[in-house]
Amino acid sequence: MATLTFLGAAQQVTGSCYLVECCGRKLLLECGLRQGEDQRGRDEYQLPAQVQPHAIDAVVLSHAHLDHSGLLPLLVRQGYRNPVYATEATVDLLPIMYRDAASLLRSDYERRNRRRQRAGKEELEPPFDSSDVEHALALLHGIPYGQHRNLLPGIDLRFVDAGHILGSAIVEIWLHGEAQPRKLVFSGDLGNNCAPLMKDPAVLPEADVLLLESTYGDRNHRDLDKTLEEFNGVLEDASRSGGNILIPAFAVGRTQDMIYHLGRLQREGRLPRHRVFIDSPMAIRVSEVYAKHQDLFNHDDPNFRAFMEGGWDNWLPGLTYTVLPEESMALNRITEGAIVVAGSGMCSGGRILHHLKHNLWRNKTQVVITGYQARGGLGRLLVDGATSVRIFGEDIAVKARIHTLGGFSAHAGQDQLVSWATRHQGNRAKLFLVHGEIEAMLALQDRFRNEHRWEAQIPAPGDAISV
After folding, report:
1. pTM
2. What is the CATH number of domain 3-219+410-466?
3. Helix 88-118 to helix 130-137 angle, to the nearest 10 degrees?
């Protein structure tokens, strides 16, 4: 008999982690970092208690975002030495993600330890370092979309395109225990059908057990064309008022989408005269990986074909990449006419914090939120209307205008989630909602129950089921 234990992203959005046990083997599906309020009082760099690194036989990652993959270097530091499976594009992205995370951790712990030294306290050791990252990267095995692969005795795997970011996958797992073989499908993060670069999520005809993400289980996104109109209005307002525009953006996916959208608006004559800065060395490296995998993009859109033929720079003339710290700091001396796209997307770290510190208190500043913001994080505080926030130990008044443009989301909205999942209802798969706040899960549960007479279960952290 096979079992599935929900270790993370159960009644919460981040920290995706599930333990699959079959035929005496243990497979860890996802190894994600908890962010924002999902930490619930614990260190974000901490493995679930049920995960014993030496006892895990294989790890499978759906995509490169750290809330799905970010604890792998810690797992390796604590003794894991077996294979890690992901799509080929994800394997190309993870070195960028992990090396950047290790660098940020090193800087963060150096600052912490200087304070502890002055206080006469013992120094702290980072949860992992660059050597752990390199050991983790050596374990990666890339599998092409659509290829059926035996991972362990009794456990087979296939990835298909989830349409969320480059390399994101819906994960199919076949479990061949003593009883009839069973098929577990994990949606991963399902993409928004309106995403400009990615293909629509693949449709799967069958599943015995279905794990469905529910990040936006309680609402739909605004139509993309209307979102672009609203975005253009923000740009025009900033042009009239003379302020800067700050766009917190994930280095993987959202930054590339924003380059595309800004270039499209410029080509349509709707982009007021602004200087556009991509202030994220990681996003620049990620864009190079995106260019390598052009075959995975949506080539049906004529705008997109022009985008790829001309390249990133020609698509948006005047685009400036700021790589060096000094170049980034110089942006804070610009008080008007700049569009700054910087990470992190949830405002939990990175260069965007410095730009927010220097601009939030200006009433001419516009802040455009383009993605999900975890509860308890700075981005969520801004979305929820905070009048003051604390950045680098300093209280900053929030006088800037905060705009939330959900149509840019890389996640499927409620209608898209329901439409995708109901393709599985021919055999009435056991349906479990994961990766969502409880309010979103309850709304999605009601939708399945009332419209499709399909009972979706909402597991709690630590719950285990027979597959």
Report:
1. 0.90
2. 3.60.15.10
3. 160
